Amino acid sequence: MKSDEQIRWKMKIKQWGCELGFVSVGFTTAEAIEGLDSLLETRSEKGLATPFEVKEIKLRIDPQAVWDQCKTVVALAYPLPATQPPLKGEGIIARSAVGEDYHQVLYQKINQLINSMVVNGWTGTPRFQVDTGPLVERAFAVRAGLGWVGRNQQLIIPGYGSFVALALLLLDQEIEPDQPCTLDQCGTCQRCAEVCPAKIIGKEPFQAIHCVSYQTQSKAVLTNEEFSKIGERVFGCDSCQEACPHNKKRIQQEQVTSSSLKRGVDLLETLNLTKSEFGERYKLTAAGWRGKGVLQRNAFLALRNRQDRRYQEWLTEREKDKGIPPIIIPYLD
Ligand code: B12
Q1: Contact residues for 179 (Cβ-Cβ < 8 A; gap 6+)
Q2: Residue 179: phi, psi to the nearest 5?
Q3: What are phi and psi of 161, to 5 degrees?
Q4: Fewer CB within 10 Å, N side or C side of the chain?
Q5: pLDDT tens digits for 28-74?
Q6: Residue 28 three-state SS
Q7: Is 131 a catalytic residue?
Q8: In whole angstroms, how far apart are CA 173 and each of 70, 122, 130?
Q9: Measured between alpha carbons, how far is residue 55 from residues 43, 44, 49, 136, 238 in Å?
Q10: Sequence-distant (≥ 6) Cβ neighbours of residue 258 within 8 angstroms
C-alpha cells in the first residue's frame, strides 16, 4: 500500500474507532516485542505466571507467530462503564466485571469497525483478540502509543486513566506505525503500592499469582493469609487503580453521576445464589466465566472477613441440611 493510502486508512480507522466509543486507537508493526520473552520466562520459571496465560512465549510476543500474514497491530482501548460505588457492607465487584461482559461489547464494536473497513474497500480479513488471545496486550498498546504501563502494571492513557479494556486488531497490510508512548507519569508516586492488599506492587517481576484479583478468580484453596487480603471483594480488585491519581477524575464522576450499574452486591444473596440467579445476574458479565462457586466462596469469605453476624447464621442454617457448596468446605473451621 502506498504511503498516502496508509495514512488515509489510519485516519479512517482511528475516526471509526472513535465514533464507536474507543478512547484511544494506535498502530504498531507486527514485529515481536523485543525483550519481553525474558520477562515472561522469568515469570514462569519463578512460578509467578497465572494459569490464565498461554504458555508458548513466541505466541505471546510475536503477532506473526499468531498469524503469519500479520503486518500491522492496532491497539484499541474501550472505557469500562460508569458504575455506582458499593454501599457499606456490600461485596465488591471490579469495574471490568460489571455490566455486559466487555469481551462481548468489544467483539461487537470491533466487528462493526471491520465492517466499516470492508465496505470502504479494505481487502483481507482482519483478526482480533480481546483479553483471551495469546498476545500481551499492554505491551502492544504501549508500542502503539496508547499510554504507559504504570507502577500498578496498568496501561494508563494520558488524560484518561486506566479504567479501559484493551483489544488488538491484526491487519495483513502495512500501515505506518505510531510513535510508542515514552511518557511515564508515575514518577515517585507510591499510592498504588501503599493500598495494594497483597503488597506486591513495586516488586519485579510482578507476582501475578499473589495478586488479589487473581485469587478472587482462582479455584485453588486459599490460605488464611490470602483470603483475609481478599477483604470484601467478590470478583477482581481495583484498589491499585482507585488510588491512582490518573483515575481521580473518573472516580469523582462516579460519585456524582447516577448509573444503573452497581459494583456492590449483597453478600448473603451472592452466597445463596441458585443456578438460575447466577445465570440471570452474572453469566453475561465478565464475572461469570469462573462459574457460581468462586463467587459464593468469595461472598462467604467476605462475610467472614467482615465478621458479619450473617456468616454464623448462614453456617448454622446450612450445616443442618449439609447444603454447603463443596468449594466452601475447606474454609470451615
Ligand atoms: C493474565 C492476566 C491477568 C492476571 C495477571 C496480571 C498481570 N499483571 O500479569 C490477573 C488475574 C492477576 C489479572 C488481573 C487484572 N487484570 Co488482567 N489480564 C491478564 C491477561 C490475560 C494477560 C496478562 C499478561 O500477559 N501478563 C504477563 C505480563 C508480562 O504482561 P502484562 O502485565 O500484561 O504487561 C506487562 C508487559 O507488557 C510490560 N511491558 C510493556 N511493554 C514492554 C516492553 C518490554 C520490552 C518489556 C520487557 C515489558 C513490557 O508491562 C506490563 C506490566 O509489567 C491480559 C490480556 C492479555 N491478553 O494481555 C489481561 C489484562 C492485562 N487485564 C486487565 C485487567 C483490567 C485486569 C484487572 C484490573 C482486573 C481487576 N479489576 O481485577 C486486574 C489488574 C491486576 C494488575 N495489577 O495487573 C486488562 C488491563 C487494562 C489496562 N488498563 O491495563 C487486560 C489487558 C485485559 C483487557 N483486554 O482489557 N490479569
Answers
A1: 145
A2: -75, 135
A3: 105, -165
A4: C
A5: 999 999 999 999 999 999 999 999 999 999 999 999 999 999 999 99
A6: strand
A7: yes
A8: 7, 9, 20
A9: 11, 8, 9, 12, 26
A10: 84
Task: Write down the pLDDT at residue 136.
Answer: 98
Ligand 1 pocket test, pick from 153, 226, 285 with the greatest ligand atom count within 8 Å of Cβ, gives: 153
pLDDT tops 90 at residue 321:
no
Going by C-alpha positions, the residue among 247, 73, 55, 81 that lies closest to residue 150 is: 247
Distance of alpha carbon 107 from alpha carbon 124, whole angstroms: 18
**248 Cβ contact list (under 8 Å, min separation 6):** none
pLDDT of residue 319: 80
Q: Which helix (H) or strand (E) holds 298?
A: helix 292-305
Whole-angstrom distance, CA of residue 86 vs CA of residue 17 = 32
Distances (CA, A) of 156 to 19, 59, 199, 267: 21, 24, 20, 32
- Rounded average pLDDT over 127-154: 98
Q: Is 214 in the pocket of ligand 1 (CB under 6 A)?
A: yes
13 lines ligand 1 (CB under 6 A): no
Take residue 228 and report the three cell numbers written for it. Answer: 483475609
How would you label 56-93 residue by residue, b for 16+ Cβ within 10 Å and e otherwise? ebeebbbbebbeeebbbbbbbbbbbbbbbebeeebbbb
Distance from the CA of 238 to the center of ligand 1, in angstroms?
A: 13
105, 78 contact by CB (below 8 A)? yes
Assigned C-alpha cell, 178: 505510531
Strand partners, 92: 233, 264
Catalytic residue among 4, 62, 101, 131: 131
Instruction: Verify whether ligand 1 is closer than 6 Å to residue 170 (CB atom).
Output: no
Q: Which three cell numbers stand for residue 303?
A: 462475610
Query: pLDDT confidence of 318, banded at 50, 70, 90?
Result: confident
Q: Which three cell numbers stand for residue 80?
A: 469500562
Q: What are phi and psi for residue 76, nearest 5 degrees?
A: -130, 140
